[in-house]
Amino acid sequence: MPDDATELDRARDSFLRWIRVECGLAPATLEAYGRDLRELLRFLGGRGVVEPAAVGPRDLSEFLVSQKVDEGKAAGTVIRRLAAVRVFFRYLEAEGAIEENPATWLERPTRWRRLPGVLSPGQVRRLLEAPTPEQDGAGRPPLWLRDRAMLELMYASGLRASEVGAVGVADAYRETGLVRVLGKGSKERLVPMHAAAWSALERYLADCRPRLVRPDGRDRGRLLLSRTGRPLERVAVWQIVKRQAARAGLANVHPHTLRHSFATHLLTGGADLRLVQELLGHADIATTQVYTHVDRGRLKSVHKRFHPRG
């Protein structure tokens, strides 16, 4: 810790060590908590609040309001920051750093149920076909095969950006058509992948990945690799999706757009909501239900077909 670290800085670092060692949270969750608390301490520092005992309920509520109003954060981000604040101050209370928990009376904001952006099947096809050989220079590994395999995998199985890079070569079971995915909270799930995606993946494994692997084992057995032979990071996944979407003439496309499209197209085709919940790795079916609001046309047709007065 730097010499000018405040008591809140030290408390935050102690808390992050505790949730890493004692709680065993996923790396992505640890990173998010660290980011959320960094924003909180920056806000409190601007008010001259540098000790845990000096933080009041109003400081916390105004921090959350500032995130939504001033910073323009999405409701989901604000809710996650609320969760981080609550857990942090429960920890401080349990450790005896504060006598009263100022986060006790924070109300959970109503989640804004914004309908997710979804691509049509035709737009998905354009995106999947965007990676082409001319993107790679002569003599270089055909990274377009990696990009196409990655996009196919994401749309075929509804993977998050953080999950894609974590898939290992040994996690793809060609004989059963399944991919093992390590999701949030280190929860594993098996998701199927269709023939077209397997074809793209097998071509990448045959013609591209061997040219990316280095003798030092830096690939760590991961499926999708960078130009330097290291596993693809979440940021790289975002960059690839954005770049290929631009080539396909598609705007406002990000990794979650493929996940949204995967879920919506399944439900449009008649898949059961519980099945889609399982495939997406949602702990709460309420998270999955947002997709039932996307295809209004199908709801109307089902109502007309089955309602007695239709």
Q: In words, what does this structure look like?
A:
The mean pLDDT is 85. The protein folds into two domains: 7-94, DNA polymerase, domain 1, CATH 1.10.150.130; 121-302, Intergrase catalytic core (hpI Integrase, Chain A), CATH 1.10.443. It has helices at 7-21, 27-46, 57-69, 75-94, 121-128, 143-157, 161-164, 195-207, 209-212, 234-247, 255-268, 273-280, 285-288, 296-306, and strands spanning 172-173, 178-182, 188-192. The protein has 14 helices and three strands. β2 (178-182) and β3 form a beta hairpin. It has a three-stranded antiparallel β-sheet, with no helix packed on it. With 310 residues, the chain is mainly alpha-helical.
Topology, element by element:
Elements: H1 7-21, H2 27-46, H3 57-69, H4 75-94, H5 121-128, H6 143-157, H7 161-164, E1 172-173, E2 178-182, E3 188-192, H8 195-207, H9 209-212, H10 234-247, H11 255-268, H12 273-280, H13 285-288, H14 296-306
Antiparallel strand pairs: 1-2, 2-3
As a whole number of angstroms, the C-alpha radius of gyration is 23 Å
Poorly predicted residue ranges: none
Helical amount among residues, as a percent range?
40-55%
Number of strands: 3
Keyphrases for this structure?
2 domains; hpI Integrase, Chain A; three-stranded antiparallel beta sheet; mainly alpha; 310 residues; globular; single chain
Describe, in short, the structure shown:
The chain is mainly alpha-helical. It contains 14 helices and three strands. The chain is globular.
